[in-house]
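Deviation from plan, reported transparently: adenosine-5'-diphosphate complex.
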Amino acid sequence: MTLALGCIADDYTGASDLANTLTRAGLRTVQTIGVPADDLALPEVDAVVVSLKSRSIEAGLAVSRSRAAETWLRGRGAGHVLFKICSTFDSTDAGNIGPVMDALRADSGEAVVLVTPAFPETGRTVYQGNLFVGAVPLNESPLKDHPLNPMHDSNLVRVLARQSRAQTGLVDLATVARGADAVRARLAELAGKGIGAAIIDAVFDRDLETIGLVAARQSLSVGASGMGLGLARALVSTGKVRPAAASSEQGAAVGGPAACLAGSCSQATLQQIARAESVMPVLRLDPVRILTERDEAERALAWARPRLADGPVLIASSSTPDQVAALQARHGRDAAGHAIEQAMADIAESLVKAGVRRLVVAGGETSGAVVDRLGIPGFLVGAEIAAGVPVLRAVGAKTGDMLLALKSGNFGGPAFFADALGLMR
Ligand code: ADP
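Because the crystal trials were delayed, the predicted structure below was used instead.
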């Protein structure tokens, strides 16, 4: 199997967003957690998104991890590698976008790397090299106060130039509007001047399509999910990838017992739990007991085990904002969060040992703890249950065939748990 597209994402949620975007555009896509083992058995796929946590770590480490991911992807035949960054270009003058781009450029031999965080459907547009977040320039958006990567300059040509050894140029919107050949001519011109990276403007989806057509014939690009969308559309429109309907990619039914875990205390999740009570047994964990007695996970399993044969169950730690605040005041926010996440991971592990093969998890951090504990190396991305929440099929997992849905906070409609299980056959 030869990958049409390899992606290296600098954080997990960005990777999921990209994998979901590629899937919706017709690419059969696997998202891996970290750089996979050399022998990871992949199903037939068009794209792999390697999820790293490299956005805010030391630049040298981000470079070495990204290079390891690139080696793996190229080893699987990826002709093009997209380095997936945040659509708000989260970075500092020390990196990590510039240093990682420089290293990947050196490895790939790319003359001029196309760079754009534009993703018009989420309000990220780039004009004359300036990134807008909705109606305001980046440096006037809430990103100016980001705790790790405060963005004080909206001009990405300057931002990237401060981070990269390459000289940085611009491909402006007027050139993009004239089409792929005009962009290629501009890149040749920039290459002639010794420029090694170009911020490229994009304001509408059609701009991403033009950029995708050009990028797909290069070996490296840097961008957000919008660049992924442009590349995916180009791969499909040029016949390099035969589009697959996400729903047909669920493969054989997995069957077996199903369970839901909720660690999110968001308004949406609290409503979803209340709604689920009319269709499945629900156990509400005692968060105080999780922190003090440490036997809640066992109690939960004892409750769930006899019920699994009769249909799905839901186990929730979620409480209302007042109760959460009270618990945090007594035990500390981090300690409380961590202990509950680990209890949910214990419960997930025991449920899987008890035969559960379809697992729905509500909560971003909670999902991370569960996936880490189950040691799942990657997921084939399937049909969307709700915007941004696809059905995931575990790839290369010790647990064998298994379906998951991982939902963060406010995602999904009121009947989310039943909706998810309805698609997880
Ligand atoms: P979301 O996606 O809604 O932010 P997360 O799982 O990322 O959900 O975060 C929820 C956090 O709250 C986790 O750290 C979880 O362990 C913690 N938590 C869950 N239930 C409770 C509770 N009853 N009281 C306090 N914290 C809780």
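The two ends are 27 Å apart (CA to CA). We consider this an acceptable substitute for the interim report.
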